[in-house]
TrEMBL record, chain A:
Record protein name field: 26S proteasome complex subunit SEM1
Subcellular location: Nucleus
Lineage, broadest ranks: Eukaryota, Fungi, Dikarya, Ascomycota, Saccharomycotina
Biological process terms in GO annotation: double-strand break repair via homologous recombination; mRNA export from nucleus; proteasome assembly
Function in brief: Component of the 26S proteasome, a multiprotein complex involved in the ATP-dependent degradation of ubiquitinated proteins.
Broad class of the protein's primary localization: nucleus
Family statement drawn from the similarity comment of this UniProt entry: Belongs to the DSS1/SEM1 family.
TrEMBL record, chain B:
Species of origin: Maudiozyma exigua
SMART domains: PAM (SM00753)
Name assigned to this protein: COP9 signalosome (CSN) subunit
Domain PCI: 359-439
Molecular-function GO terms, alphabetical: double-stranded DNA binding; RNA binding
InterPro entries cross-referenced by the UniProt entry: Csn12-like, PCI_dom, WH-like_DNA-bd_sf
Gene3D superfamilies the UniProt entry points to: Winged helix-like DNA-binding domain superfamily/Winged helix DNA-binding domain
Pfam family, one: PCI
Source taxon at top rank: Eukaryota
Family: Belongs to the CSN12 family.
Length: 90, 450
Protein backbone atom coordinates (compact mmCIF):
# COMPACT_ATOMS: atom_id res chain seq x y z
CA UNK A 1 0.00 0.00 0.00
CA UNK A 2 1.20 3.43 -0.63
CA UNK A 3 0.97 6.48 1.54
CA UNK A 4 -1.86 7.87 -0.52
CA UNK A 5 -4.57 5.60 0.80
CA UNK A 6 -6.13 7.94 3.25
CA UNK A 7 -9.51 8.09 1.64
CA UNK A 8 -11.98 5.35 2.43
CA UNK A 9 -12.09 2.62 -0.11
CA UNK A 10 -15.28 1.83 -1.89
CA UNK A 11 -15.90 -0.44 -4.76
CA UNK A 12 -18.55 -0.33 -7.35
CA UNK A 13 -19.47 0.19 -10.89
CA UNK A 14 -18.01 2.90 -12.93
CA UNK A 15 -20.22 4.96 -15.16
CA UNK A 16 -19.16 6.64 -18.28
CA UNK A 17 -22.09 9.05 -18.30
CA UNK A 18 -24.11 10.63 -15.59
CA UNK A 19 -26.78 8.58 -13.98
CA UNK A 20 -29.42 9.57 -11.54
CA UNK A 21 -28.04 7.23 -8.91
CA UNK A 22 -24.94 8.35 -7.05
CA UNK A 23 -21.92 6.56 -8.43
CA UNK A 24 -19.63 4.91 -5.96
CA UNK A 25 -16.00 5.66 -6.60
CA UNK A 26 -13.10 3.39 -6.15
CA UNK A 27 -10.41 5.64 -4.80
CA UNK A 28 -7.86 2.88 -5.06
CA UNK A 29 -7.51 3.89 -8.67
CA UNK A 30 -5.80 7.08 -7.52
CA UNK A 31 -2.85 5.11 -6.30
CA UNK A 32 0.46 4.84 -7.97
CA UNK A 33 -0.26 1.61 -9.85
CA UNK A 34 -1.33 3.71 -12.76
CA UNK A 35 2.02 4.24 -14.36
CA UNK A 36 3.56 4.11 -17.79
CA UNK A 37 4.52 0.46 -17.98
CA UNK A 38 7.89 -0.78 -19.12
CA UNK A 39 7.90 -2.06 -22.66
CA UNK A 40 8.43 -5.81 -22.81
CA UNK A 41 11.29 -5.30 -25.26
CA UNK A 42 13.74 -2.44 -25.70
CA UNK A 43 14.13 -2.52 -29.45
CA UNK A 44 11.91 -2.79 -32.45
CA UNK A 45 12.70 -2.06 -36.06
CA UNK A 46 12.12 1.52 -37.20
CA UNK A 47 9.94 0.11 -39.95
CA UNK A 48 7.37 -1.12 -37.42
CA UNK A 49 6.77 2.21 -35.71
CA UNK A 50 3.49 4.04 -36.12
CA UNK A 51 5.35 6.69 -38.07
CA UNK A 52 5.90 4.16 -40.81
CA UNK A 53 2.46 2.68 -40.55
CA UNK A 54 0.25 4.21 -43.23
CA UNK A 55 -2.85 2.94 -41.55
CA UNK A 56 -2.36 4.87 -38.32
CA UNK A 57 -0.10 7.77 -39.11
CA UNK A 58 -2.03 9.42 -41.89
CA UNK A 59 -5.18 8.86 -39.97
CA UNK A 60 -4.27 10.56 -36.71
CA UNK A 61 -5.70 14.06 -36.96
CA UNK A 62 -8.69 15.48 -38.67
CA UNK A 63 -8.86 19.03 -39.93
CA UNK A 64 -8.99 21.55 -37.11
CA UNK A 65 -12.43 21.92 -35.62
CA UNK A 66 -13.00 25.37 -37.00
CA UNK A 67 -13.36 23.81 -40.40
CA UNK A 68 -15.68 21.07 -39.34
CA UNK A 69 -19.24 21.51 -40.47
CA UNK A 70 -21.60 20.27 -37.85
CA UNK A 71 -25.18 19.34 -38.08
CA UNK A 72 -26.52 17.07 -35.44
CA UNK A 73 -29.37 16.91 -32.93
CA UNK A 74 -27.70 19.46 -30.74
CA UNK A 75 -27.39 22.04 -33.50
CA UNK A 76 -30.93 21.56 -34.70
CA UNK A 77 -32.13 21.83 -31.10
CA UNK A 78 -30.26 25.10 -30.77
CA UNK A 79 -31.71 26.36 -34.02
CA UNK A 80 -35.27 25.74 -32.84
CA UNK A 81 -34.62 27.30 -29.46
CA UNK A 82 -33.13 30.42 -31.03
CA UNK A 83 -36.11 30.77 -33.36
CA UNK A 84 -38.42 30.45 -30.38
CA UNK A 85 -36.43 33.03 -28.44
CA UNK A 86 -36.54 35.47 -31.29
CA UNK A 87 -40.28 35.05 -31.67
CA UNK A 88 -40.81 35.75 -28.00
CA UNK A 89 -38.63 38.81 -28.04
CA UNK A 90 -39.84 40.57 -31.11
CA UNK B 1 25.83 -23.26 -10.34
CA UNK B 2 22.99 -21.91 -8.29
CA UNK B 3 20.38 -24.06 -9.93
CA UNK B 4 20.77 -27.48 -8.46
CA UNK B 5 18.16 -28.97 -10.76
CA UNK B 6 20.42 -28.29 -13.64
CA UNK B 7 20.72 -31.37 -15.79
CA UNK B 8 23.43 -32.09 -18.25
CA UNK B 9 20.82 -32.77 -20.94
CA UNK B 10 20.41 -29.06 -21.31
CA UNK B 11 23.01 -27.62 -23.54
CA UNK B 12 24.53 -24.63 -21.87
CA UNK B 13 27.05 -22.30 -23.34
CA UNK B 14 29.73 -21.14 -20.98
CA UNK B 15 30.60 -17.50 -20.54
CA UNK B 16 33.35 -15.98 -18.45
CA UNK B 17 31.88 -13.00 -16.61
CA UNK B 18 35.32 -11.45 -16.24
CA UNK B 19 35.87 -11.43 -20.00
CA UNK B 20 33.29 -8.70 -20.46
CA UNK B 21 35.35 -6.37 -18.31
CA UNK B 22 38.64 -7.42 -19.80
CA UNK B 23 37.45 -7.04 -23.40
CA UNK B 24 35.02 -4.18 -22.67
CA UNK B 25 31.98 -5.37 -24.51
CA UNK B 26 28.47 -6.49 -23.68
CA UNK B 27 26.08 -8.90 -25.32
CA UNK B 28 22.69 -10.52 -24.76
CA UNK B 29 24.16 -13.00 -22.30
CA UNK B 30 25.40 -10.24 -20.06
CA UNK B 31 22.04 -8.52 -20.22
CA UNK B 32 20.26 -11.80 -19.46
CA UNK B 33 22.58 -12.28 -16.49
CA UNK B 34 20.85 -9.37 -14.70
CA UNK B 35 17.27 -10.03 -15.77
CA UNK B 36 16.03 -11.34 -12.46
CA UNK B 37 12.38 -10.57 -13.12
CA UNK B 38 12.29 -13.39 -15.64
CA UNK B 39 12.69 -15.71 -12.64
CA UNK B 40 14.21 -18.41 -14.76
CA UNK B 41 17.93 -18.64 -15.00
CA UNK B 42 19.59 -18.13 -18.32
CA UNK B 43 20.65 -21.23 -20.20
CA UNK B 44 24.14 -19.78 -20.28
CA UNK B 45 26.53 -20.98 -17.63
CA UNK B 46 28.42 -18.08 -16.12
CA UNK B 47 31.81 -18.49 -14.51
CA UNK B 48 34.51 -16.18 -13.25
CA UNK B 49 38.11 -16.81 -14.10
CA UNK B 50 40.12 -17.03 -10.92
CA UNK B 51 42.99 -15.22 -12.46
CA UNK B 52 40.90 -12.17 -12.83
CA UNK B 53 41.91 -10.06 -9.87
CA UNK B 54 39.21 -7.59 -9.11
CA UNK B 55 37.31 -7.56 -5.87
CA UNK B 56 34.29 -5.66 -7.08
CA UNK B 57 33.71 -7.85 -10.12
CA UNK B 58 34.07 -10.88 -7.89
CA UNK B 59 31.54 -9.47 -5.47
CA UNK B 60 29.08 -8.77 -8.27
CA UNK B 61 29.52 -12.34 -9.50
CA UNK B 62 28.99 -13.85 -6.07
CA UNK B 63 25.95 -11.69 -5.42
CA UNK B 64 24.49 -12.82 -8.73
CA UNK B 65 24.87 -16.45 -7.69
CA UNK B 66 23.22 -15.77 -4.37
CA UNK B 67 20.37 -13.85 -5.99
CA UNK B 68 19.60 -16.61 -8.49
CA UNK B 69 19.84 -19.21 -5.77
CA UNK B 70 17.31 -17.26 -3.70
CA UNK B 71 14.98 -16.86 -6.66
CA UNK B 72 15.00 -20.55 -7.56
CA UNK B 73 14.61 -21.67 -3.95
CA UNK B 74 11.72 -19.29 -3.32
CA UNK B 75 9.84 -20.28 -6.44
CA UNK B 76 10.30 -23.98 -5.82
CA UNK B 77 8.38 -23.77 -2.53
CA UNK B 78 4.80 -24.73 -3.30
CA UNK B 79 3.08 -22.80 -0.50
CA UNK B 80 4.63 -19.52 0.35
CA UNK B 81 3.30 -17.63 3.33
CA UNK B 82 2.99 -13.86 3.47
CA UNK B 83 5.84 -13.55 5.90
CA UNK B 84 8.12 -15.64 3.75
CA UNK B 85 7.27 -13.65 0.63
CA UNK B 86 7.95 -10.39 2.39
CA UNK B 87 11.27 -11.60 3.75
CA UNK B 88 12.28 -12.91 0.34
CA UNK B 89 11.50 -9.65 -1.44
CA UNK B 90 13.28 -7.55 1.17
CA UNK B 91 16.40 -9.70 0.89
CA UNK B 92 16.22 -9.63 -2.87
CA UNK B 93 15.97 -5.85 -2.81
CA UNK B 94 19.00 -5.56 -0.52
CA UNK B 95 21.08 -7.83 -2.73
CA UNK B 96 20.16 -6.20 -6.02
CA UNK B 97 20.69 -2.76 -4.50
CA UNK B 98 24.12 -3.81 -3.29
CA UNK B 99 24.91 -5.21 -6.70
CA UNK B 100 23.82 -1.99 -8.40
CA UNK B 101 26.01 0.07 -6.11
CA UNK B 102 28.97 -2.17 -6.91
CA UNK B 103 28.25 -1.96 -10.61
CA UNK B 104 28.03 1.82 -10.32
CA UNK B 105 31.50 1.87 -8.79
CA UNK B 106 32.78 -0.37 -11.57
CA UNK B 107 31.05 1.68 -14.26
CA UNK B 108 32.80 4.84 -13.07
CA UNK B 109 36.00 3.57 -14.60
CA UNK B 110 34.38 1.90 -17.61
CA UNK B 111 33.14 3.40 -20.86
CA UNK B 112 29.94 3.37 -22.84
CA UNK B 113 29.81 -0.44 -23.27
CA UNK B 114 28.67 -1.00 -19.69
CA UNK B 115 25.70 1.37 -19.83
CA UNK B 116 22.98 -0.89 -21.16
CA UNK B 117 23.70 -3.80 -18.78
CA UNK B 118 23.91 -1.28 -15.94
CA UNK B 119 20.56 0.13 -16.98
CA UNK B 120 19.02 -3.34 -17.11
CA UNK B 121 20.23 -4.00 -13.57
CA UNK B 122 18.96 -0.62 -12.32
CA UNK B 123 15.61 -1.32 -13.94
CA UNK B 124 15.41 -4.63 -12.07
CA UNK B 125 15.64 -2.70 -8.83
CA UNK B 126 12.86 -0.34 -9.90
CA UNK B 127 10.71 -3.30 -10.94
CA UNK B 128 11.29 -4.92 -7.60
CA UNK B 129 9.86 -1.89 -5.83
CA UNK B 130 6.59 -2.62 -7.59
CA UNK B 131 6.76 -6.26 -6.47
CA UNK B 132 7.58 -5.23 -2.91
CA UNK B 133 4.50 -3.10 -2.80
CA UNK B 134 2.31 -6.16 -3.10
CA UNK B 135 3.89 -7.68 -0.01
CA UNK B 136 4.61 -4.72 2.20
CA UNK B 137 2.00 -3.78 4.71
CA UNK B 138 3.80 -0.62 5.75
CA UNK B 139 5.23 2.39 4.01
CA UNK B 140 7.14 1.68 0.86
CA UNK B 141 8.79 5.09 0.67
CA UNK B 142 12.06 4.02 2.30
CA UNK B 143 12.60 1.44 -0.41
CA UNK B 144 11.65 3.78 -3.23
CA UNK B 145 14.04 6.39 -1.87
CA UNK B 146 16.88 3.91 -1.56
CA UNK B 147 16.21 2.80 -5.11
CA UNK B 148 16.19 6.46 -6.18
CA UNK B 149 19.57 7.10 -4.58
CA UNK B 150 21.20 4.13 -6.29
CA UNK B 151 19.73 4.98 -9.69
CA UNK B 152 20.77 8.59 -9.25
CA UNK B 153 24.40 7.47 -8.95
CA UNK B 154 24.11 5.70 -12.29
CA UNK B 155 22.59 8.88 -13.71
CA UNK B 156 25.39 11.14 -12.45
CA UNK B 157 28.17 8.82 -13.56
CA UNK B 158 26.75 9.22 -17.04
CA UNK B 159 26.05 12.93 -16.89
CA UNK B 160 29.42 13.94 -15.50
CA UNK B 161 31.69 11.89 -17.75
CA UNK B 162 34.35 14.12 -19.20
CA UNK B 163 35.88 11.56 -21.54
CA UNK B 164 36.76 13.48 -24.71
CA UNK B 165 36.33 10.35 -26.83
CA UNK B 166 32.72 10.66 -27.95
CA UNK B 167 32.40 6.98 -28.75
CA UNK B 168 33.35 6.00 -25.24
CA UNK B 169 31.74 8.82 -23.31
CA UNK B 170 29.05 7.66 -20.92
CA UNK B 171 26.90 10.73 -21.43
CA UNK B 172 24.98 9.01 -24.19
CA UNK B 173 23.40 6.73 -21.57
CA UNK B 174 22.03 9.51 -19.47
CA UNK B 175 18.51 9.31 -20.90
CA UNK B 176 18.16 5.66 -19.93
CA UNK B 177 18.56 6.61 -16.28
CA UNK B 178 16.44 9.72 -16.60
CA UNK B 179 13.54 7.44 -17.50
CA UNK B 180 14.10 5.39 -14.37
CA UNK B 181 14.29 8.55 -12.29
CA UNK B 182 11.04 9.79 -13.77
CA UNK B 183 9.44 6.54 -12.79
CA UNK B 184 10.78 6.68 -9.26
CA UNK B 185 9.70 10.28 -8.73
CA UNK B 186 6.24 9.38 -9.95
CA UNK B 187 6.16 6.60 -7.41
CA UNK B 188 7.18 9.10 -4.76
CA UNK B 189 4.59 11.51 -6.10
CA UNK B 190 7.22 14.21 -6.01
CA UNK B 191 6.73 16.88 -8.64
CA UNK B 192 9.57 19.05 -7.39
CA UNK B 193 12.08 16.31 -8.05
CA UNK B 194 10.68 15.85 -11.56
CA UNK B 195 11.00 19.58 -12.13
CA UNK B 196 14.58 19.56 -10.90
CA UNK B 197 15.48 16.64 -13.10
CA UNK B 198 14.11 18.35 -16.22
CA UNK B 199 15.88 21.57 -15.23
CA UNK B 200 19.24 19.84 -14.86
CA UNK B 201 18.92 18.10 -18.21
CA UNK B 202 17.77 21.29 -19.94
CA UNK B 203 20.69 23.29 -18.59
CA UNK B 204 23.13 20.60 -19.71
CA UNK B 205 21.59 20.50 -23.17
CA UNK B 206 22.05 24.26 -23.39
CA UNK B 207 25.62 24.18 -22.10
CA UNK B 208 27.77 26.48 -24.21
CA UNK B 209 30.89 24.36 -24.20
CA UNK B 210 29.77 20.78 -23.88
CA UNK B 211 26.09 20.55 -24.76
CA UNK B 212 24.44 17.26 -23.88
CA UNK B 213 23.18 15.45 -26.95
CA UNK B 214 19.41 15.10 -27.45
CA UNK B 215 17.66 11.87 -26.56
CA UNK B 216 17.41 10.95 -30.21
CA UNK B 217 21.17 11.25 -30.66
CA UNK B 218 21.93 9.28 -27.52
CA UNK B 219 22.02 5.57 -26.83
CA UNK B 220 18.22 5.71 -26.88
CA UNK B 221 18.32 5.79 -30.67
CA UNK B 222 19.22 2.09 -30.44
CA UNK B 223 16.73 1.30 -27.72
CA UNK B 224 13.63 2.94 -29.13
CA UNK B 225 11.42 1.82 -26.25
CA UNK B 226 13.46 4.16 -24.11
CA UNK B 227 13.13 7.02 -26.54
CA UNK B 228 9.36 6.60 -26.53
CA UNK B 229 9.38 6.42 -22.73
CA UNK B 230 11.45 9.59 -22.47
CA UNK B 231 9.18 11.45 -24.86
CA UNK B 232 6.16 10.29 -22.92
CA UNK B 233 7.50 11.47 -19.58
CA UNK B 234 8.59 14.81 -21.03
CA UNK B 235 5.16 15.30 -22.61
CA UNK B 236 3.54 14.45 -19.34
CA UNK B 237 5.81 16.89 -17.53
CA UNK B 238 5.06 19.79 -19.86
CA UNK B 239 1.33 19.08 -20.13
CA UNK B 240 0.40 18.00 -16.63
CA UNK B 241 2.87 20.01 -14.56
CA UNK B 242 3.79 23.06 -16.63
CA UNK B 243 0.57 23.44 -18.63
CA UNK B 244 2.73 24.04 -21.68
CA UNK B 245 0.58 22.19 -24.17
CA UNK B 246 2.59 23.15 -27.21
CA UNK B 247 5.70 21.40 -25.89
CA UNK B 248 3.70 18.56 -24.42
CA UNK B 249 2.13 17.96 -27.81
CA UNK B 250 5.54 17.87 -29.50
CA UNK B 251 6.92 15.24 -27.16
CA UNK B 252 3.82 13.09 -27.04
CA UNK B 253 3.43 13.18 -30.79
CA UNK B 254 6.99 11.87 -31.06
CA UNK B 255 6.19 9.21 -28.50
CA UNK B 256 3.13 8.18 -30.49
CA UNK B 257 4.98 8.05 -33.80
CA UNK B 258 7.86 6.08 -32.32
CA UNK B 259 5.61 3.55 -30.64
CA UNK B 260 4.58 0.25 -32.10
CA UNK B 261 0.88 -0.56 -32.20
CA UNK B 262 1.55 -3.91 -30.55
CA UNK B 263 2.09 -2.19 -27.20
CA UNK B 264 -1.44 -1.18 -26.40
CA UNK B 265 -1.04 -0.37 -22.73
CA UNK B 266 1.66 2.20 -23.46
CA UNK B 267 -0.15 3.50 -26.52
CA UNK B 268 -3.25 4.06 -24.38
CA UNK B 269 -1.27 6.14 -21.92
CA UNK B 270 0.21 8.23 -24.73
CA UNK B 271 -3.15 8.86 -26.39
CA UNK B 272 -4.85 9.72 -23.10
CA UNK B 273 -2.58 12.76 -22.93
CA UNK B 274 -1.98 13.42 -26.60
CA UNK B 275 -5.64 13.83 -27.56
CA UNK B 276 -6.51 16.64 -25.11
CA UNK B 277 -3.11 18.31 -25.59
CA UNK B 278 -3.60 18.26 -29.36
CA UNK B 279 -6.88 20.08 -28.86
CA UNK B 280 -5.44 22.59 -26.44
CA UNK B 281 -2.30 23.39 -28.38
CA UNK B 282 -3.31 23.21 -32.03
CA UNK B 283 -7.06 22.75 -31.80
CA UNK B 284 -6.52 19.45 -33.53
CA UNK B 285 -9.22 16.87 -33.41
CA UNK B 286 -8.15 13.28 -33.37
CA UNK B 287 -9.71 11.33 -36.19
CA UNK B 288 -12.77 9.46 -34.98
CA UNK B 289 -11.74 6.65 -37.29
CA UNK B 290 -8.52 6.16 -35.36
CA UNK B 291 -10.31 5.66 -32.07
CA UNK B 292 -12.78 3.33 -33.72
CA UNK B 293 -9.95 1.37 -35.23
CA UNK B 294 -8.09 1.10 -31.97
CA UNK B 295 -10.96 0.70 -29.56
CA UNK B 296 -14.17 0.26 -31.49
CA UNK B 297 -13.67 -3.27 -32.69
CA UNK B 298 -14.02 -5.04 -29.42
CA UNK B 299 -17.01 -5.05 -27.20
CA UNK B 300 -16.25 -3.06 -24.12
CA UNK B 301 -17.48 -4.47 -20.87
CA UNK B 302 -19.74 -2.12 -19.00
CA UNK B 303 -18.54 -3.17 -15.57
CA UNK B 304 -14.82 -3.07 -15.91
CA UNK B 305 -12.70 -3.65 -12.90
CA UNK B 306 -11.36 -0.23 -12.05
CA UNK B 307 -8.24 -1.75 -10.60
CA UNK B 308 -7.46 -3.02 -14.06
CA UNK B 309 -5.90 0.12 -15.43
CA UNK B 310 -5.57 -1.32 -18.91
CA UNK B 311 -9.26 -2.16 -19.27
CA UNK B 312 -10.25 1.16 -17.80
CA UNK B 313 -7.99 3.12 -20.13
CA UNK B 314 -9.34 1.25 -23.13
CA UNK B 315 -12.88 2.01 -22.15
CA UNK B 316 -12.21 5.67 -21.46
CA UNK B 317 -10.49 6.13 -24.82
CA UNK B 318 -13.11 4.15 -26.71
CA UNK B 319 -16.15 5.77 -25.13
CA UNK B 320 -15.42 8.86 -23.06
CA UNK B 321 -12.88 10.39 -25.45
CA UNK B 322 -15.11 9.77 -28.42
CA UNK B 323 -17.91 11.62 -26.67
CA UNK B 324 -15.63 14.47 -25.64
CA UNK B 325 -14.39 14.94 -29.18
CA UNK B 326 -17.97 15.04 -30.33
CA UNK B 327 -18.72 17.75 -27.77
CA UNK B 328 -15.77 19.75 -29.08
CA UNK B 329 -17.07 19.54 -32.62
CA UNK B 330 -20.66 20.38 -31.82
CA UNK B 331 -20.06 22.78 -28.94
CA UNK B 332 -22.33 20.69 -26.75
CA UNK B 333 -21.39 22.31 -23.49
CA UNK B 334 -24.15 20.60 -21.51
CA UNK B 335 -22.93 17.16 -22.42
CA UNK B 336 -19.31 18.19 -21.82
CA UNK B 337 -20.10 19.37 -18.31
CA UNK B 338 -21.95 16.14 -17.68
CA UNK B 339 -19.01 14.07 -18.78
CA UNK B 340 -16.19 16.05 -17.29
CA UNK B 341 -17.35 17.93 -14.24
CA UNK B 342 -20.36 15.99 -13.04
CA UNK B 343 -19.61 12.30 -13.56
CA UNK B 344 -17.38 11.42 -10.63
CA UNK B 345 -15.74 8.33 -12.06
CA UNK B 346 -14.63 10.37 -15.04
CA UNK B 347 -13.29 13.05 -12.74
CA UNK B 348 -11.25 10.40 -10.97
CA UNK B 349 -9.91 9.23 -14.31
CA UNK B 350 -8.78 12.75 -15.23
CA UNK B 351 -7.25 13.35 -11.82
CA UNK B 352 -5.35 10.09 -11.96
CA UNK B 353 -3.93 10.99 -15.34
CA UNK B 354 -3.04 14.56 -14.36
CA UNK B 355 -5.62 15.99 -16.74
CA UNK B 356 -7.96 17.78 -14.38
CA UNK B 357 -6.71 21.29 -15.18
CA UNK B 358 -6.45 20.54 -18.89
CA UNK B 359 -10.06 19.42 -19.01
CA UNK B 360 -11.14 22.66 -17.34
CA UNK B 361 -9.22 24.63 -19.97
CA UNK B 362 -10.71 22.51 -22.69
CA UNK B 363 -14.16 23.48 -21.43
CA UNK B 364 -13.39 27.03 -22.50
CA UNK B 365 -12.86 25.85 -26.06
CA UNK B 366 -16.10 23.91 -26.04
CA UNK B 367 -17.89 27.00 -24.76
CA UNK B 368 -16.25 29.05 -27.51
CA UNK B 369 -17.48 26.57 -30.06
CA UNK B 370 -20.95 26.78 -28.56
CA UNK B 371 -21.04 30.59 -28.74
CA UNK B 372 -19.70 30.42 -32.27
CA UNK B 373 -22.53 28.12 -33.33
CA UNK B 374 -25.14 30.35 -31.68
CA UNK B 375 -23.67 33.25 -33.65
CA UNK B 376 -23.89 31.29 -36.88
CA UNK B 377 -27.44 30.16 -36.20
CA UNK B 378 -28.44 33.70 -35.27
CA UNK B 379 -27.67 34.73 -38.83
CA UNK B 380 -24.36 36.25 -37.84
CA UNK B 381 -25.95 39.17 -36.06
CA UNK B 382 -23.31 41.17 -34.21
CA UNK B 383 -25.48 41.72 -31.16
CA UNK B 384 -26.10 38.49 -29.26
CA UNK B 385 -28.34 38.68 -26.19
CA UNK B 386 -26.85 36.86 -23.21
CA UNK B 387 -30.22 35.32 -22.46
CA UNK B 388 -30.25 33.73 -25.87
CA UNK B 389 -26.82 32.21 -25.35
CA UNK B 390 -27.88 30.98 -21.96
CA UNK B 391 -31.27 29.59 -22.85
CA UNK B 392 -30.54 27.90 -26.18
CA UNK B 393 -28.76 24.92 -24.63
CA UNK B 394 -31.87 24.00 -22.67
CA UNK B 395 -33.78 23.16 -25.82
CA UNK B 396 -36.32 20.40 -25.69
CA UNK B 397 -37.16 20.92 -22.03
CA UNK B 398 -40.86 20.94 -21.28
CA UNK B 399 -40.54 23.13 -18.21
CA UNK B 400 -39.81 26.77 -18.90
CA UNK B 401 -36.27 27.61 -17.97
CA UNK B 402 -36.07 30.31 -15.35
CA UNK B 403 -33.27 32.72 -15.98
CA UNK B 404 -31.63 33.92 -12.80
CA UNK B 405 -29.38 36.95 -12.54
CA UNK B 406 -26.63 34.72 -11.14
CA UNK B 407 -26.73 32.47 -14.18
CA UNK B 408 -26.48 35.43 -16.55
CA UNK B 409 -23.65 36.93 -14.50
CA UNK B 410 -21.81 33.64 -14.56
CA UNK B 411 -22.14 33.41 -18.33
CA UNK B 412 -21.03 37.02 -18.68
CA UNK B 413 -17.94 36.24 -16.67
CA UNK B 414 -17.12 33.20 -18.82
CA UNK B 415 -17.55 35.26 -21.97
CA UNK B 416 -15.35 38.01 -20.54
CA UNK B 417 -12.63 35.39 -20.11
CA UNK B 418 -12.96 34.37 -23.77
CA UNK B 419 -12.78 37.98 -24.89
CA UNK B 420 -9.76 38.76 -22.73
CA UNK B 421 -7.99 35.74 -24.19
CA UNK B 422 -8.72 37.11 -27.64
CA UNK B 423 -10.77 34.07 -28.54
CA UNK B 424 -13.72 36.34 -29.28
CA UNK B 425 -13.38 39.79 -30.82
CA UNK B 426 -16.03 41.90 -29.17
CA UNK B 427 -17.26 43.45 -25.96
CA UNK B 428 -19.91 42.95 -23.35
CA UNK B 429 -22.67 45.37 -22.49
CA UNK B 430 -23.64 44.71 -18.92
CA UNK B 431 -26.53 47.19 -19.00
CA UNK B 432 -28.08 45.77 -22.16
CA UNK B 433 -27.23 42.18 -21.18
CA UNK B 434 -25.68 41.38 -24.50
CA UNK B 435 -22.42 40.67 -26.25
CA UNK B 436 -21.43 42.70 -29.30
CA UNK B 437 -19.01 40.95 -31.61
CA UNK B 438 -16.80 42.35 -34.33
CA UNK B 439 -18.15 42.43 -37.87
CA UNK B 440 -14.94 40.99 -39.21
CA UNK B 441 -13.71 37.65 -37.99
CA UNK B 442 -15.33 37.68 -34.56
CA UNK B 443 -13.99 34.21 -33.76
CA UNK B 444 -10.38 34.28 -34.89
CA UNK B 445 -8.94 30.88 -35.47
CA UNK B 446 -6.61 30.68 -32.56
CA UNK B 447 -3.71 28.40 -33.21
CA UNK B 448 -2.29 28.34 -29.72
CA UNK B 449 -4.38 28.77 -26.67
CA UNK B 450 -2.46 29.18 -23.47
Amino acid sequence: MSATTEQPKTTGEQEITTTEKPVTINTKSLEEDDEFEDFPVDQWPASSTLKESKEFHTNLWEESWDDVEVDDNFTSGLREEIAKYKQEHQ
Amino acid sequence: MANEDFTMNEMKSIVDFGDYFRDKYSDDSLVRYFQYHLRKESTTLYMLNNEFQDDKIKQVFELNQRIWSNITTFHSVPERGKKMALQYHKELFDMIDEQLLLMNRIAERESRWILYPLFVLARELVMLVKELRKHLSFNLTTYVERCGRSVHRSFTLCLNDRNPNKLENRRSGVYLFINLEFKIYHKLNNRDMIKNLVKVVKSRQEDRFEPLMSCHESLCSIYNSQEVTYNYYMGQYYGCIENNYEKAFEYLNLAYLGCNDGYKSQLNKILILLIPFGLLSHRKLVHQGLLSKLYGGKKLKSNVNQDNIYENDERMLGQLYKEIIKCCRTGNIVRYDNLVTITKSNQIFFLRNGLYVSMQLLRELVLLRYVEIIYQLNEKMTIIPLEMIYIAKFYGQKKKVTITTEAINELECELACLISKKMIKGYLSHGNKCMVVSKTDPFPNLKIVK
